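Changelog-adjacent note: as of this version, every example in the card shows the full chain rather than a window. The one below runs 54 residues end to end.
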Amino acid sequence: MAGKSKFPMGIENFMEMRTEGLYYVDKTELIKKLLENPGKVNLFTRLRQFGKTL
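Full-length structure tokens:
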């Protein structure tokens, strides 16, 4: 499996991600912390051409 990404590029189905053994990062706890302790400004950075629909 050399050279193959373990990240689910283009896969939206959670069941498929798990059966294929791909990585999944649950950031629910980070969202909770952000909502409980808001700052004056919250900065969300992202790579160029990533998340244009935000």
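Structural remarks: Helices lie at 14-19, 28-36.
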